[in-house]
Write a structure and sequence with these properties.
This protein has 495 residues and is an alpha+beta fold. 35% of the residues lie in helices and 14% in strands. The chain is elongated and about 110 Å long.
């Protein structure tokens, strides 16, 4: 992929409408699926959390503070839009809510209320991520207020009637103003004290929840829809352990602040942009299978215009793709493929023959690969191996001292590659700046075209493939894949 061409195309994409809104939606989607923060096996599982929530509800019912729930029904498989991480559970929203109530809608004239007067919230006071107390109408003086409907600090409010886009949007009230009452178009949910309200708010405003409400909303007008309390309480909710809920909320709030900055400025600072890119590309490398990767990729690809608007982000994407490639996630495995264990036997046979023929020396014994050295799980049919097991592997040579002896270079015949040429190669080495004479070659070694070169000094672990026969010094190691493998392209990707 040519970076300049991609950036040129992204300049056109960057003006796409609704880009930041789509990015916010992606963040919520990843959050409620458990893909923004890692799971901690030490967390108490959601099943135990549910038992505590149930015990709290039973106690409140016994004390006469809440009424017994109506049966919510089992969650069918078709209601579960995605797979949950280990330790999570699917529950109905009503299972984590102790009670729900709508407010009061008297006939009000004028808007907004005057200081010292009671007001009734309009439905527009509630939208995703924002509570607007100024959206109210003043209660007429001849009507007595109903303090039981007054908005309180920390209330979880949901708009049960609104436009098709905003119906059933929810918000957690921070600091509430006094003398503001709920209208009957707004539901207050008494969320269990065992739940993180901010996480539940994210779930309710995620795209799959929007689909649930859109499918179950009623109303004759296309611009105004209603949802019943039964529809709200019947929403299928992915429930993580309580500790993970808090970690997710913290992460989402960080990313939403980046979206705020992007919306305000049209462009993020480098550190902010890198944080956002790292998070979203991290969902790709967290994939467990090619199918899961394809699903994640579809989401990230929709936001190229916002994410890949600078070279550093494209470099990060390239690195992500390389990681996915060497983990076997870019393409599906074929069970008909010959397993890597058979390939290793063929390579061993090939090397034994070359040793007998005197063409290569016997390897030094290699230590077994420990579990601590394995950075990720391999797909079925793959094997871990060390470079010397897979072909000829050795250090470059430049034995003569001083290394700048003119006799080594005159007359110049044999190309010499240094660490700098490897670092600048971008895959295939095509340049060199000095040549050995036959004297120079005699104290070095000529490596064939196609050798993988890896730097071990100056620029550590830069890698590229020789585009011509060449020598290199002991600051570079070379790897010639066995004939059973054929070429070094895969190993270059790995490096």
């Amino acid at each position: 992929m040519d970076k300049r061409m991609l950036l040129s195309n992204l300049d056109l994409l960057a003006t796409a409408p609704g880009g930041v809104a789509r990015l916010r939606e992606l963040i919520l989607t990843l959050a409620v699926q458990g893909k923004l923060v890692p799971q901690d096996p030490e967390d108490e599982p959601a099943g135990e959390l549910l038992k505590k929530i149930r015990a709290e509800k039973d106690r409140l019912m016994a004390e006469g503070k809440i009424k017994r729930d109506k049966p919510l029904g089992e969650i069918a498989e078709e209601e579960k839009p995605f797979e949950l991480p280990v330790g999570w559970e699917w529950v109905r929203l009503g299972a984590v809510v102790n009670a729900s109530e709508a407010g009061w809608s008297p006939t009000c004239i004028g808007s907004p209320r005057r200081p010292g007067h009671w007001g009734v919230l309009k439905v527009s006071a509630v939208s995703w991520g924002r509570f607007d107390p100024t959206a109210n109408k003043e209660l007429p003086s001849e009507l007595a207020p109903k303090p039981e409907y007054e908005v309180q600090h920390g209330d979880f409010l949901l708009s049960r009637a609104n436009t098709a886009e905003l119906v059933a949007r929810s918000v957690v009230v921070g600091v509430a103003e006094s003398q503001l009452m709920l209208s009957d178009k707004i539901i207050r949910l008494a969320v269990s004290s065992r739940m993180n309200r901010a996480f539940l708010n994210m779930v309710n405003n995620a795209s799959y929840s929007r689909e649930h409400y859109a499918a179950n909303a009623s109303g004759t007008s296309s611009s105004m829809k209603n949802v019943s309390r039964e529809v709200v309480l019947g929403l299928a909710v992915p429930l993580p352990p309580l500790a993970e809920q808090s970690r997710i909320v913290t992460r989402v709030e960080e990313l939403m602040r980046l979206c705020d900055a992007l919306e305000a400025k049209g462009r993020l600072e480098a550190a902010q942009h890198a944080q956002l890119v790292s998070t979203l590309l991290g969902t790709l490398t967290a994939s467990a299978t090619p199918d899961e990767l394809a699903d994640h990729w579809q989401r990230v690809a929709q936001h190229f215009d916002l994410l890949l608007d600078r070279p550093a982000a494209i470099d990060a994407l390239e690195q992500t793709l390389l990681q996915l490639a060497v983990r076997g996630l870019l393409v599906p495995q074929d069970p008909q493929d010959q397993p890597a264990s058979v390939l290793l036997k063929k390579i061993r046979t090939e090397k034994d023959r070359l040793i007998v023929d005197g063409k290569i020396k016997r390897d030094k014994p290699l230590s077994p690969i420990t579990d601590e050295e394995k950075p990720f799980e391999l797909p079925q049919g793959w094997e871990w191996a060390r470079f010397p097991e897979l072909g000829q592997f050795g250090r470059g040579k430049s034995k003569h001292r001083p290394r700048n002896d003119p006799a080594l270079f005159n007359p110049p015949i044999h190309p010499v590659v240094q660490t700098g040429e490897v670092a600048r190669a971008k895959g295939v080495i095509q340049e060199y700046h000095s040549k050995y004479s036959d004297v120079g070659l005699a104290q070095s070694r000529l490596w064939p075209k196609g050798t993988l070169c890896i730097t071990i000094a100056a620029n550590i672990a830069d890698a590229a493939v020789l585009g011509f026969d060449a020598c290199f010094p002991d600051s570079v190691v070379g790897f010639i894949p066995a004939n059973a493998i054929g070429h070094a392209s895969y190993f270059l990707a790995f490096m």
